Amino acid sequence: xxxxxxxxxxGLAALLLLPWLLGGCSxxxxxxxxxxxxxxxxxxxxxxxRLDVGIILFDPGTSEDSLADEKKLVxxxxxxxxxxxxxxxxxTTLEASGYWGSVWVVPQRSDAVDLTVTGRIDLxxxxxxxxxxxxxxxTGREWLNKAYSVRVPEKAYSKYREPGQDPYQVLYNxxxxxxxxxRRKLSAAELRTLRNVAELRYGAQLVPEAFAGxxxxxxxxxxxxxxxxxxxxxxxxxxxxVREREYALVDTLNEYYANLYYEINTPYEDWRKxxxxxxxxxxxxxxxxxxxxxxxxxxxLAAILYEGSGGDNSAITMTGVMGGIEGIKSGLGKNxxxxxxxxxxxxxxxxxxxxxxxxxVEVEGQTRRLTGTAEERYQEWRRLLREIYSAETGTPGxxxxxxxxxxxxxx
Length: 411
Prior knowledge:
disordered N terminus, about 55% helix, alpha/beta, five-stranded mixed beta sheet, two-stranded antiparallel sheet, 9 helices
């Protein structure tokens, strides 16, 4: 008899817990907002210690399986826009610190800069953001290889926040501060050597024969300066002139990236704000669906156990079964709502798709039109630079674009 009462009590307890389980699907959340103030130069940094930085367009982190991406709430259209937007936001952050020379967003790696920064977007949905950042200087020395993450509170989207502060700003500040920490490990002499190596690598990229023997590369891929070119070497002055032309093109491209940045700033922030709400809703609905379904199954199981143990109160059995069925139905309903929420995210993502426009440049008094994607235009321009240098020096060169593609970021 006592065993029967025990089973009856267990069944009744499960049934009594059912309303609490079904009602307890929404939970209040408190999201802490991590602060990371940007380190800013208190005084002007000497020009000899300012490094020029190239931030390569980020890897959007999408896969070839669009359906798999959608299940993870990853939308290629948004990620493609973010792959251009995020590097530009990092550029403005580095510039605001006052520690760097020229900072550009570039389509691919170039030896025209002293420090190259790469990035991959692992997560970005308005609520959570995660990026993986790598950085290498012109000698091939690694500065950063690190993941950065942040969970964004609602207040980060307030219109009253500080101007220029992105909801993901903590990420950019942390990256900038880490780059500065790496730079501070180098002496003034090492910084000057780094800049010299960058210049000579650029020259060797154009005409290897003219700059042969000036640099050594060890087994680890690190470049070391053997000697500087002779003072007044005409090859160097011509190379520097070509390098300045590349800077001019990068400036033009950055005007395009700036326009894109400002054009999508408002819709992108609106998307992130709505996406954040939808992601929270989606996660809550999925959790609710699981809890309700589990509670429903538990209620049915309790009713079966009660009846199987000899329970003769059909009202209790029926209550358990009907309550369980309602719980499972409710769970299915929440799953359907979650799918609707996911579709709304997909529709939001579909509004982002930025195409590159034609860029017009002047080359030796002639107007050249560069078309295609930013990367294609950049490669075409660098091919033209190779032609200019070869024509001026009378020496055969190599395709700078091919060299950039073939050389990994660190070497």
